[in-house]
Design a protein that fits this description.
Order of helices and strands: HHEHHHEEEHEEEHEEEHH
Number of helices: 9
Structural class: alpha+beta
Strand order of the largest sheet: 7-6-10-8-9
Helix content: 25-40%
Oligomer: single chain
Number of strands: 10
Largest sheet: 5 strands, mixed
């Protein structure tokens, strides 16, 4: 009887040790208690910063559509016989985008080499407008810049790891996790790692505690292009992944069989 009780206690202890405590699971515990004035100080979603390797779509707009055609790459290439100007297929119109080189430069029709590396989206728009007006146009044009490669990678303990694209050039941490199908029950929520490539090519590593209500106030909450999000496995996943050597596994199996036989015999002799 004592042997049976011992086995039951050991089994219960093993099950309990493999479970996460309830406080480790929810996101942003107590976020509804944050004062409105504190929420107003949260870091605003900023414009993405141009980095080497970025692919940009730049459109110059004016009431005089003919006057701005030379400054729109699609119209410029079409005039030179470059082919289809249909911008609905990325595979067909990559030639109409501007690839930022290793020095942060792009080659722009009529304007030549423009250094835009390290500039925000709005700064690039203003810079190009000032390069065109008043030198080439009699009125200041509108300029629209779109990042065609705004994406982040998410891996580790999420249901659907992979690359997530944002067509509007903005993405926050909760949106990325939602698109990845949420963290698994084995994801370590208090130490989510964000690996970021800065505009000068350097890298930085930041950690976010998803359990903490203040995470929505963190500058890391708003992601930047090419961020890598890594969700570390918790201790329960580590225990599950522990491999028992074959010889030890066979020995444990044999011992378990002998204990079962011994327990059965003791029960019969009582």
């Amino acid at each position: 009887m004592k042997s049976k009780s011992f086995f039951l206690i050991m089994l219960a202890a093993l099950l309990l040790s493999s479970c996460n405590t309830q406080k480790d699971i929810p996101y942003m515990i107590g976020a509804n208690q944050l004062p409105a004035e504190v929420l107003q100080t949260a870091a605003k979603a900023s414009d993405p910063v141009v980095m080497p390797g970025d692919m940009l779509q730049i459109n110059v707009i004016s009431r005089n559509t003919e006057a701005v055609k030379p400054f729109n790459k699609s119209d410029y290439i079409s005039k030179l016989g470059g082919g289809n100007t249909n911008l609905n297929s990325n595979s067909e119109n990559s030639m109409y985008y501007y690839l930022v080189d290793a020095n942060g430069n792009i080659e722009y029709p009529f304007l030549g080499t423009l250094h835009i590396g390290g500039m925000s989206k709005s700064a690039v728009e203003d810079y190009i407008a000032t390069q065109i007006y008043p030198r080439y146009l009699t009125e200041r044009p509108g300029v629209e810049v779109r990042f065609q490669n705004f994406r982040v990678s998410i891996l580790g303990e999420v249901k659907n790891p992979g690359v997530i694209k944002a067509t509007n050039g903005r993405l926050n941490l909760l949106e990325a996790i939602a698109q990845a199908g949420d963290l698994t029950i084995h994801g370590k929520r208090d130490n989510v790692m964000i690996i970021r490539t800065n505009s000068d090519g350097s890298r930085s590593i930041q950690t976010v505690n998803m359990n903490d209500k203040n995470m929505i106030l963190s500058p890391s909450f708003n992601l930047q292009q090419n961020d890598i999000i890594y969700v570390e496995p918790n201790s329960s996943r580590a225990r599950q992944s522990w491999n028992v050597p074959p010889a030890l596994s066979l020995g444990m199996s044999s011992v378990g069989t002998l204990i079962s036989i011994a327990t059965f015999i003791i029960t019969l002799t009582k």
